[in-house]
Structures are given as structure tokens and as C-alpha cells.
Automatic annotation (TrEMBL):
Gene3D superfamilies: 3.60.21.10. GO terms for molecular function: hydrolase activity. Belongs to the UPF0046 family. This is Calcineurin-like phosphoesterase domain-containing protein. CDD domains: MPP_239FB (cd07379). InterPro entries: Calcineurin-like_PHP, Metallo-depent_PP-like, UPF0046_metallophosphoest. Residues 76-256 form the Calcineurin-like phosphoesterase domain. Coiled coil: none annotated. It comes from Rotaria sordida.
Amino acid sequence: MFLFKLSTYNWVPGLRVPRVRNHPRAVLHHLNRVPHWEEGTVDSVLAERIGAGTEDNPFVIYRDPHSIGTDSHKRLRFVCVSDTHNQIDKLTIPRGDVFVHCGDAVKYYSSARDLLKFNKFVGTLPHTHKLFISGNHCISINPERPDLTQEILSNMTYIQDQIIDIEGVRIYGSPWQLKRGLFYRAEAFSYAPENIRADKWAHIPEDIDILLTHSPPYSIRDHCSKSAEHLGCPGLLHEVVTRVKPRIHLFGHMHDGYGASLYKSEENQTLEGENSTSLSSDILFVNLAIDQGRRLGDPVVIDYFY
């Protein structure tokens, strides 16, 4: 039974920008870059244990947290970015096994031309696997023909509402975000807020290791400084923390929220409510939005043991 209701949203007349109201928020432990709209500091104990997300000190996540310290694991190193907006060639991209891009590689007004350039650049990267989901700036991508997009992005695997299995690690990617209205030109893969949970998020499978979306869940590194609002999706939040429970959720879209936080289910009974279980689940949430205005962020490196 969905907890999400139409009354979750207020609407700004004419703009139709969803404003979330009276909705539970996630309780988070920030591992780096405490969001400027929140009070608090980095959880130094967790940051010391999990890592910093850099090449020399990657985030270390285990599929089974109870197996930490044993030596019977495989490892995949993920190198992750989002929202590079035609600036990916300016980045120093660490080596790894899997390169992940969570959308908005281009800008909307030159999307068709620049996706070709992006594909050419990704072809130069040494990673064995390269994954891409779309974002709202990719207006030249036809949501009805992912096969055509795969032909254009020939140097990577294009993921649109599907699972990719890489050496036993199950990854699901979905590009959708809440529809913002006619005044926004970069509206690829936008979806009606009142339907997005049932039509899109409810189809995310539960048996996955890593979730890729372009947009963030509500209250998780989703703040917009211009509107002073949290613009993530409450339906996505509920599906991820109460049902899907991936070990890692990667996204971008909201540039102010760049950074990583850890969610611990036992601390958020208000959000999980009747769906909570006795089994605790930790989820690493990472906003990968590289474009930080006058400067660029760094790719995030994650070592996943399974």
C-alpha cells in the first residue's frame, strides 16, 4: 500500500513545480560535504570506517555488512559522475572496473551534437564496463526507443528501467524525474508527480545491489538554493528505503547536494512506519553532480565487495 498521496504536493500556479509538504524526511549521517542548509557536521566515525570516496580512500561497501573482515570476497571498483554538462574532458577520472554516469552529460540546447562527443570521449576510458542513464538535459533521446540511444552511445551501456548484471553485481537504472512544467526547457524524462511512483519507482526490483537514478529521493541531498525547497521525489524515497533497500543509491540532478550520506533504517521509524522490519539496512546515498558552477567536483570512487 502506497503512503504517497496527491496531497503530498502543493503546486505553484502556472509553473506546476511540485512542492512537497508534511512529509517525513530521511535521517542521514553525512560522510563529506555537509549540505549548507543543514546543521551538523560530518560523522567522523562513519567516515573513517566507510572512506572518503576518493581514489586513494574510496568508499568501501559490502553486500553483506556482517562479512566485513573476511577475505572471501570479489571486488568491483566503481568510478561515478553525473551532471558533467559537456565538461567531462576536464576531469581526472580514476581507473576502475565500472564507469558510471547518472545523466546530464550534455546541455539541452546542443544535446544531439554533444552526445556524440560524449560517446567518443567515453570510448577513450579504460574501464571494462561503462554505464549511462539519461537526465533531463538529454532532450534528443527518445524515451520510446532506447535501442536507438544505445546505437548512438556505442561506447557504453545505456540503461533505461532495466537491470544490468556485472560479474554478479545487479544494477538497476532509471532516468525519470518530477515534471516541472512548460517554463523549463530541459525536461527530458519528466513525469507527472502523482503517477511517477506507481508507474516507475514501483517497478524497481528488490534484489539489486546498486540503484542509479538521475533525480534524488526527497530530503536526501535534494535542496535547491534558488527555491529554498527540497525537490527530490517522496515516492522514490519510500520505495528505496522501505522496499528496494539497495546497498548504494547514486544520483545527481540537484547540484547543491553534491556529496555522500549514509542512511540507517533503525533510526528512521517515522519514515518507515509499518513497513519497517527487525532487519536493519544501511544505504549509501551519493549525489554525483559534478558541475558546481565555477568549479567542478571530483568523481566518486566506490569499492564494492560481494
